Target: Cation diffusion facilitator family transporter
Amino acid sequence: MSGGHSHGPAPSERSGSAAARWRSRLTLAVVLIGGFFLIELVTALLSGSLALLSDAGHMAADVLTLAAALGATVIAGRPDRSGRRSYGRYRIEVFASLFAVLVMLAVAAFVVIEAIGRIGSPAEVGTTPMLVVGALGLLVNLVVMALLRAGAGESLNLKGAYLEVVADTVGSLGVIAAGVLVTATGSAAWDTAVALAIGAFVAVRAVMLGRDVLVVLGQETPRRLDPARVEADLAAVPEVLEVHDLHLWTLTSGMDVITAHLRIRAEADSHGVLDAAHQVLREKHGLDHATLQIEPEDHRTDEESTW
Model:
């Protein structure tokens, strides 16, 4: 029996290099979003705008997402000297995303509770700060989008951060719309209505992100992969008689992993079969990180020997 693994680049080389090239832009994005979050939070508290406060909470989630993306490019490249992290530190990104989910849900819950408390007796809202800060937030988000757009095409890690900023741009537009409506009608109810809409938007996105996080932590088969098709393609490799104990899961964003046992003809060239199987996985399914165990035809496991 012989075992095999991917002979390609190490995971850190494959998954970290693209994001690492954009690390300086990610750093600038974190500084811009983080700095504006503080400005928006203070302005929201002083102006009494719930829409502005909800968008500040949304931007806080942006800071966490961007920081997690930035941290992943740094931490993933660090060697593990303990010898106990056989897959490195890639799951840190997943746990950071889970933390972001909890923050986003807390923000959405706060906005809903605050909005319910204002029904029937809306608070006074300063529309000028709303419009100024909303416009500034829109500008900051557009700048950050420009910084990350190109990198989003190379790294799934950056793509997630980019889409988070795109969503926050919608929140900034909502703040501006609330300011205009309150100014035009004189009714602060528009501020509450827009805040509820932003809160619902944040909650929906949090649930969607949370579902993706649980899929990874539960080691479910990635949605892009069909286990039956992967098994069939491996079984079609010349000299392979049977495929069993096949497992597919996601280690972290952009890094899917497979393990499988391949039973081959006794006279087959195990090295040739191994190389052919890895080529099939890489070219047909985009799986670079694979561990394949080769079993000769006459090999029997402990379970089979008792039949």
